[in-house]
Amino acid sequence: MEIRLLTTSIPPINKFRACHKEVPRVFTSRPFHRLSRRQLFSEFAGGVVLSTLPAFSAPLIEGEEPHRYEQLENGVKYEDVIDGEGTRAEEGNVVEINYVCRRSNGYFIHSTIDQFSGENTPALLLIDDKEIIKGLKDVLIGMKVGGKRRALIPPNVGYINEKLKPIPDEFGPRRSLLSHAKEPLVFEVQLLKIL
């Protein structure tokens, strides 16, 4: 079964050929693994491209602001995923947090939440420059209990010292974390308690 949709102009593969050929655009009932890349792209990429153009994307609801990151002076970028309730964390407080640390490309490094069982072992941290990495300190200040933030922490305010917390106790995750200390890290932090 073959359905002819329309005719499009496809530029030639050979860059020395100056003319364009009129090629019929065909969608067949063949399985996708038998379609060429060009056929798959021509059938499906058009919808993707149209949905990303501002004229064809969904309009913003009046009064709704787009989701934005806040950037601090030291280069830390963060967003509030969940606002939380109650008192705000301040410098000098001891806090109990859950966190997930990833490289900026999404590669997992360490977490206080076991990814298989779901069990968590929260970290207790003193919000202070001498105890924890400066970027994480800046992210924690102002958070409310129950709040969750996602932050991109540049290396100059990250693990500049191997003794700064949070750091895994196990050798493998510790080695992985410290080997990536000179690149930006993504932290997802949930504030559980202020002690």
- Uncertain runs: 45-58
**CATH fold-level label of the largest domain:** Chitinase A, domain 3
CATH class of the largest domain: Alpha Beta
For the largest beta-sheet, the strand count, sense and barrel status come to:
7 strands, antiparallel
- The pLDDT mean sits at 78
How many domains make up the coordinates? Answer: 2
Strand content: 25-35%
Query: How much helix, percentage-wise, in residues?
Result: 10-25%
CATH architecture of the largest domain: Roll
The H/E string reads EEHEEEEEEHEEHE
Structural class assignment? alpha+beta
Radius of gyration: 25 Å
Shape: globular
User: Number of DSSP helices?
Assistant: 3
Number of DSSP strand runs: 11
Structural write-up:
Keywords: Isomerase, Rotamase. This is peptidylprolyl isomerase. One of its GO terms (molecular function) is peptidyl-prolyl cis-trans isomerase activity. Its EC number is 5.2.1.8. Residues 92-195 form the PPIase FKBP-type domain. The chain folds into two domains: 2-52, no CATH class; 70-194, Roll (Chitinase A, domain 3). The longest helix has 16 residues, at 37-52. Strands 3, 4, 6, 7, 8, 10 and 11 form a seven-stranded antiparallel sheet that branches. The protein has a two-stranded antiparallel sheet with strand order 1-2. The protein has 195 residues and is of the alpha+beta class. It is built from three helices and eleven strands, in the order ββαββββββαββαβ. A hairpin with a 4-residue loop joins strand 6 and strand 7 (108-111). 16% of the residues lie in helices and 33% in strands.
